[in-house]
Amino acid sequence: MASEGAMVRPDDVIGINQYDPARLFVINAIPSNERISHELIRGSIQVKVGDLITYDQILATAIPEAGIKHPFRSPVRAKVEYIQYAVGIIVASEIQDYDMKPHRVNLADKLGVKPKYVQRYLLHHVGDFVYEEETLARRLDRKVGLKPAKAPSTGQVTEFDPKTGIMTIQYPDKAFEYKALVKGKVLTVEEGKSAEIEFEAEGLEASIGWGPKVYGTIRRVDKADDPALSPKDIAVLSFKPGAEDLEKLISANPQAIVCSSIEEKTDPSSFWS
């Protein structure tokens, strides 16, 4: 929708994506990391920045020296964007290569049972959102072991027919508008992919961010219950927040929160949506 040479403001729509905004996944690949050396964690991590990971892929091997007996497998299909080796956290972004077509999978065939028995093995139901290769149902077979039935595509479970054992998955068709987020001039447009905007501003560097791209007024915040913080602000914290601080800050509904670090046991992704 953007055209080269056009002057834009932060709230101007410059493009439309047929998918939801790409999700950002924060994966704790080494769940018990408090007493594990950085060297052991680094040796255990099996992926690097830029890798495309699939559902159930091994992200970290077992660490017997630390009492971790089993490897950690990926819960999502995504692209690795950042790895914090000090604590074993992997940040990955959603791969959006979906179509809007319905995809059907015969769970009865996959599980090796009659359709009327499929329901007892279901892990997902109508209304659930699932990722490609995620397990939809599984059955323990005495001869061959665990028999999984996996999703053929990413999307929402829209239908399950207990008479046939067939489940239907379809990505929801709802467009997302991308705004300019800055005041500037459109330099180049790559049709269907991107737009380059020239603008003047000061930048703040960071390692990890949660949530979509936003715009707002930068406001320094010295305490979590700052009454001046508003929904139009980007809160720049002068302190290290804990879980209770984040709850107070998010109750003010700011556009974003920026801080130098957080309390060690606090996971900001569990607060932000």
Q: What is the CATH class of the largest domain?
A: Mainly Beta
Which fold name is given in CATH as the topology of the largest domain?
A: OB fold (Dihydrolipoamide Acetyltransferase, E2P)
Please identify the structural class as seen in this structure.
mainly beta
Number of helices: 3
- Can you give the mean pLDDT? 87
3D shape: globular
Describe the main β-sheet briefly.
4 strands, antiparallel
Total beta-strand segments: 20
Oligomer: single chain
Helical residue percent band: under 10%
What pattern of helices and strands is seen along the backbone? Answer: EEEHEEEEEEHEEEEEEEEEEHE
Query: How far apart are the termini?
Result: 27 Å
Order of adjacent strands in the largest pleated sheet = 3-8-7-4
Low-confidence stretches: none
